[in-house]
Amino acid sequence: MLTISGNFSPLTDFGHVVQQVVMPIVAKVYDRLIPIGTGFVIAPDGLMMTAAHVLIEAARYKVRGKKPDGEFYDYYELYALYITNEQHEASNQYTVGGLWPIDNLWCPNELDIGFCWLRQATHNGKPIFFPVVKLSPGIPKVGEQISGFGYYNSSSSITNEFINNQIKIKYSHDTAFTRGEILEIYPVLRDNNMLNFPCFYTDARFEHGMSGGPIFNQARAVCGVICSGMPPVEEDPRYISYGSLLWPTMAAQIEVCIDLTKGVETLLIYDLVKKGYISTDETFKNISIVLAPNGERTVSIQN
């Protein structure tokens, strides 16, 4: 049982299951690791949700490679840091975990929510399946108590040392559970500039690096994604933070293979929920997909 005390408190249990669901996202640029945000798993085979601006930031850290024919090309390396308390078979001095490659990024237009894949891997010859969170894609209520989780104050470096034939990386971060209240809801958008997407305003404290982390409602389902946060101003002691609402992402398209006979398909997140691939609460019943005159499938919601 995880105990959370205070409105902004660290995770004290190293390797807790929450760190196998919610992970730091880092970009590797040659011999540097650059922490860029937080993400969380929404499907057992590694589909992650995060903030779109985290993935956009990651794509900026491209490096130049060279093909055998001498042609140069640009690529990026993106990872999630997977942490467990499971002991490594080769040595009980170390635990299983480390940098997990991220493939395939999707950022729906005009939203600050994105999706990516943790590359499928095996352990002891068996596929690794991740614990997941349940989504609450409906619109929460003003006055509702929420909590978030993410990583901040991160730093890292790649060394020249090896452990079990793997290179040693020095990495540190702070973790935080943050609590607050939903103060205002913007079902469509807050403004035409920085927050031009469905979101809500909360007094929970969101630090830089926590972007992309999950925001839980009182039923422990994810009702939002950490978007931005600012410290209090003199005339108001509360933090000024924002979380992205989930309902528009039900119309987001990703490429997925959930039926080997069909191969890779382009499906909506809505379709994946209907197929039981992603878990949601009862608020999903208020969401429907509408076919626009131009043939595009869009999402609508009953509040």
Mean pLDDT: 87
Q: Count of helical segments?
A: 3
What is the first-to-last residue Cα distance?
33 Å
Assign a percent range to the helix content. Answer: under 10%
Q: Going across the major beta sheet, what is the strand order?
A: 12-13-14-17-16-15
Q: Globular, elongated, flat, extended or rod-shaped: what is the shape?
A: globular
Can you describe this structure?
Helices cover 6% and strands 49% of the residues. It is mainly beta and 303 residues long. The chain has a six-stranded antiparallel β-barrel. Strand 18 (253-256) and strand 19 (265-268) form a beta hairpin. It is globular and about 55 Å long. The mean pLDDT is 87.
Main attributes?
mainly beta, 303 residues, 6-stranded antiparallel beta barrel, 3 helices, globular, 6% helix
In short:
By secondary structure, the protein is mainly β. The protein has three helices and 21 strands.
Please describe the topology of this protein.
Layout: E1 8-9, H1 18-21, E2 22-29, E3 32-41, E4 47-50, H2 52-60, E5 63-66, E6 72-75, E7 77-88, E8 91-106, E9 114-118, E10 122-123, E11 126-127, E12 145-163, E13 166-186, E14 199-202, E15 214-216, E16 222-230, E17 240-245, E18 253-256, E19 265-268, H3 269-274, E20 287-291, E21 297-301
Antiparallel strand pairs: 1-13, 2-3, 2-7, 3-4, 4-9, 5-6, 7-8, 8-9, 10-11, 12-13, 12-15, 13-14, 14-17, 15-16, 16-17, 18-19, 20-21
